[in-house]
Amino acid sequence: MKRTLLFVATNLAVMLVLMVAFHVICAMIGPETLESLRHDGIDYGTLGVFSLVFGMGGAFISLLLSKTIAKISVHARVIDGSEGPSERWLVETVGELARRANVKMPEVAIYPGTANAFATGAFKNSALVAVSTDIMEQMSRGELKAVLGHEMSHVANGDMVTLTLVQGVLNSCVLFLSRLVGFVAENALSGKGSGRRRGGYGGVYYLVYYLMQMLLGLLASIVVCAYSRRREYAADAGSARLLGTQMPMIEALRRLGNLKPGVLPDSLKAMGISGKRSTSLFATHPPLEERIDALMKWTPS
Length: 301
Description:
single chain; 301 residues; alpha+beta; elongated
């Protein structure tokens, strides 16, 4: 609850700063610019609320539906341990790790596919942990337990909620800035209030608006991916804490390096154990070698 309130407060603060910053920019350009936009009926407070509602709203709706969407998108089959020895071990291991992490037992599922695993859910005490059939077949139980520890760390840390809040804040900023810059460009290039006085927005507004949406959206994606990479290091360390040693997680990562990586839908890839093997700014996971190096330096705290 505190985490949620903190990020909502941060979001409101960001919106306030953006509005103040825009007024400063208009003052630097000239007071006539700001007065012209006000004359055209632009309400910055309403625009801020609109951006907040739509930016945060979409992110939270996706989060609330995340478990259902995950099960459908990867064809996951929820298990209770009665299906066989492997399934029973999987459920019991997740239960053991959940107790160590001090969270309630999540749903456990298996889905067909290449090596990967993920956790999702709107609440850490009502989560879903799923593993692929390939990772169950290719990893030893010690390695798989470390992978499950990684996913349970995501759950215990509330990473699904935090990542959603970060995305929501950035979505709101993109909406707010895109519209504001569009208003300024329309006013400056199309004549004073020309688009608005005809009862709508002109072509300059839409051109600039969509261009800013693309550019700011790319920047927002870079920020989200950078945050996701940071949380992967934390989840690796969390697995080491739950197991009391980093070696099983190191062995699991080395094993992943020799397996065909499992590709997850975009809504799930940030919470997977393995991501696309890339060093680009848009990678959700750090390179396996860097994760292993970080674990080699890990010490119990």
